[in-house]
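Hi support team,

I've been running sequence recovery on a batch of backbones for a student project. Most finish fine, but this one hangs at about 90% for roughly twenty minutes before it completes. I'm not sure whether the input is malformed or the queue is just slow. I've pasted the structure tokens below so you can try to reproduce it. Let me know if you need the job ID as well.

Thanks,
M.K.
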């Protein structure tokens, strides 16, 4: 291949990557609307998302020939399955939080996932939390307090808003656990890891699913099929394709298209919007997440240098360095 042809191919890759990831994050931002409009309970939603997602990803992997030389060993398969346990319950808790807070608040709180990865790494694998990471964790915590927007009435007994915030945090914790586990599944196509996880979700969620309610969904079925085919099929294909083309820095930045799109959808469809106080917390979480992912170090003196040590995109069941539902 000539030098000019190689340069043209590289240019196309640089152009396609951001477009694919932006499209994936925009789709992810519409998940909340699909969940609410389906009219199904959170566990029913996740169950059918797994069913339709399995159909799409299974067919896609078959057509692409991913089942040949798949790279799974019993250990890798077990790790992928364990990560899937946390992924499907992460979805259930996140979807439950939508109705008790709002799509906007739940999504932003859920975006604290990178900090759970840092904390879990320190707890489970004795990873060192540097002063730099501790500083970003503090910034994220301050942002979380502002975004939560908890009032005195919310602190009274039985507040569903506090419960919803708790569900979003549990979802972020479960996503962090899945990320740490599936990060260790190397040499396997991420599409296959995702397929294992949604396939496992079908029997795993069946005891929590009220199938009898499905007969009354009506048009809600279209939203459920969309969650499976669009948000667990097309979105993942776009996302994983983009990860192969983009550096971690661009992935981390474009990941925030997701909460921004979710907030716009929540406002446009349901009229929900964050308060000015909550809005002040959003950039804090954004900055802290980027700082954690990209290894930003505050410039304390004129001679100090910022050291970036970004991690490689992870082959998690849902995403790499971005947080998607």
């Amino acid at each position: 291949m000539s030098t000019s042809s190689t340069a043209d191919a590289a240019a196309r890759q640089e152009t396609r990557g951001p477009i694919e990831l932006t499209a994936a994050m925009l789709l992810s931002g519409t998940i909340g609307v699909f969940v609410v409009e389906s009219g199904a309970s959170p566990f029913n939603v996740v169950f059918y998302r797994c069913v339709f997602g399995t159909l799409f990803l299974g067919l896609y992997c078959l057509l692409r020939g991913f089942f040949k030389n798949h790279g799974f060993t019993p250990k890798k398969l077990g790790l992928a399955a364990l990560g899937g346990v946390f992924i499907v319950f992460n979805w259930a808790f996140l979807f439950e939080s939508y109705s008790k807070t709002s799509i906007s608040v739940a999504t932003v709180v859920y975006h604290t996932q990178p900090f759970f990865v840092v904390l879990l790494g320190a707890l489970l694998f004795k990873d060192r939390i540097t002063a730099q990471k501790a500083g970003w964790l503090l910034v994220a915590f301050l942002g979380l307090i502002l975004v939560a927007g908890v009032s005195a009435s919310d602190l009274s007994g039985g507040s569903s808003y506090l419960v919803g915030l708790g569900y979003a945090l549990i979802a972020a914790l479960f996503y962090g656990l899945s990320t740490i586990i599936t990060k260790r599944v190397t040499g396997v196509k991420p599409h296959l890891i995702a397929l294992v996880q949604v396939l496992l979700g079908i029997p795993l969620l069946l005891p929590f699913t009220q199938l009898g309610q499905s007969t009354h969904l009506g048009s809600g079925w279209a939203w459920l099929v969309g969650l499976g085919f669009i948000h667990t099929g097309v979105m993942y294909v776009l996302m994983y394709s983009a990860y192969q083309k983009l550096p971690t820095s661009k992935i981390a930045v474009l990941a925030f298209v997701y909460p921004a799109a979710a907030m716009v959808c929540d406002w446009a469809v349901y009229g929900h919007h964050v308060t000015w106080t909550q809005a002040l917390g959003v950039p804090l979480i954004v900055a802290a997440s980027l700082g954690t992912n990209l290894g930003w170090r505050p410039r304390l003196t004129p001679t100090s240098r910022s050291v970036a040590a970004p991690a490689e995109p992870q082959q998690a069941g849902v995403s790499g360095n971005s947080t998607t539902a």
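--
Follow-up from support: It reproduced on our side and the slowdown came from queue contention, not your input. Confidence is low (pLDDT under 50) at residues 300-321. No action needed from you.
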